[in-house]
Design a protein that fits this description.
The protein is of the alpha/beta class. It has 13 helices and 15 strands. Helix 6 links the parallel strand 11 and strand 12.
Length: 393
């Protein structure tokens, strides 16, 4: 008898002839997530098996955050020939529980001497006879004992839900514009959940924003990396451009012009990374730069699609998602980012593109400043176990 973790996936089953590609990507990410605990990870018969685990609870928590995982189950693996032994182990698994239960059997080995209903009935009867704190409810049970008959017998009664989605790397690459706020980490999570590899760009304006604000953003990237692996992060000095915008642009246009130049820089960095899209945390009407007209004006600076997965969300919905993925507390730390520097009293909300271009044209050598910002960007590789700075691992 062996204790192990059984990893299930769901959406990958729909991929037809491409299924092995998605399975191998998921297997790679699961191996990465449990590397501190074990190296014994195998894909077999539409399941991933993790054995030899040093810290079961920590391993389960790491695996359930891997995109593509539907559920993680601490299971017992044993010989299937001795059905009496299977019944005894089933009773042991259910011993700590009370309330109602059912047995759900799956006989993958069609040569087995009992079919699925017979397996369920016999094991359920044995558990009922030996565990007085349990009674049967086949319709709405509090507990479900799963029994799978494959090459071996697998038994488990605990199933932790995973985050779902598609394995990282199955849907291309995107560049996340990552601020220190609540919205952009959630947007990155939602796009990464669909199998997209994230790179990130963060803009800082020293001395108007300090080191704590920078470290806050890198901490957010580290939290995201727990779901999708190492995130290559560009930290862009935006001070000279922001000062030039403040000095030369009409006050009501400074926020929009700043946003457009950020998109321009992000687009150039995305070109370096061969990223297919930009990702932002914007939602319609949340702030002045997020009206439909303002969003259309910023999109003109990108040569690739700009994904806004939060476009129709209100703030309460975004906060709930941030709490769910673990970024809300860090995002709420009181360290301002460069978007709050030189904020005008009355920013334009219905910009005309001609006026926007006129405001930008007033900035001396704007393209040269953009080029310098791109070329001098600091490059960091942020992962769950990686330092917040350093070279490519």
């Amino acid at each position: 008898m062996t204790k192990l973790l059984l990893v299930k996936y769901s959406e990958i089953h729909l991929k037809g002839q491409n299924r092995p590609y998605f399975q191998n990507l998921l297997l790679k990410r699961v191996k990465e997530s449990v590397r501190p605990f074990t190296r014994d990870v195998q894909l077999y018969d539409s399941r991933i098996f993790i054995r030899g685990i040093l810290d079961k609870e920590a391993a389960m928590e790491a695996v359930r955050k891997v995109f593509g995982v539907h559920a993680v189950c601490p299971a017992v693996e044993m010989e299937k020939a001795d059905f009496d032994a299977i019944c005894r182990v089933a009773a042991q698994i259910m011993a700590p529980l009370s309330g109602t239960f059912k047995v759900r059997a799956r006989r993958a080995d069609k040569r087995y001497f009992l079919d699925s209903p017979e397996i369920s009935a016999r094991i359920g009867g044995f558990v009922l006879a030996n565990q007085p704190n349990l009674k049967v409810d086949v319709h709405q049970p509090e507990h479900v004992l799963h029994v799978e008959i494959r090459d071996q017998a697998l038994l488990y009664a605990r199933e932790l839900p995973g985050v779902g989605g598609l394995p990282t790397g199955s849907s291309g690459k995107a560049m996340l514009m990552l601020s220190g706020g609540i919205d952009s980490p959630v947007a990155g999570y939602m796009v990464a959940k669909r199998g997209v590899v994230l790179s990130a760009v963060h803009f800082y304006s020293f001395p108007y924003t300090g080191e704590l604000a920078r470290e806050k953003v890198l901490s957010l990237a580290r939290i995201l990396s727990g779901f999708c692996g190492v995130i290559k992060t560009y930290v862009v000095s935006f001070t000279k451009l922001q000062e030039a915008i403040h000095t030369h642009c009409p006050p009501e246009y400074t926020t929009l012009v700043m946003r457009r130049l950020m998109v321009r820089i992000s687009d150039l960095l995305a070109e370096k990374e061969q990223a297919c899209a930009l990702v932002t945390g914007e939602s319609i009407g949340q702030v002045a730069s997020q009206t439909m007209e303002a969003l259309a004006a910023t999109d003109l600076m990108a040569s690739r699609p700009v994904f806004r997965p939060l476009i129709g969300f209100d703030k309460i919905e975004i906060i709930r998602l941030a709490e769910k993925i673990g970024t809300y507390e860090t995002s709420s730390l009181p360290y301002e980012d460069c978007c709050t520097v030189f904020t005008p009293r009355h920013p334009v909300t219905r910009p005309k593109i001609g006026k926007v271009l006129e405001a930008e044209a007033a900035i001396p050598e704007a393209e040269a400043l953009v080029a310098v910002a791109v070329e001098t960007a600091e490059v960091l590789f942020i992962g769950p176990e990686a330092p917040l700075s350093g070279d490519n691992p």
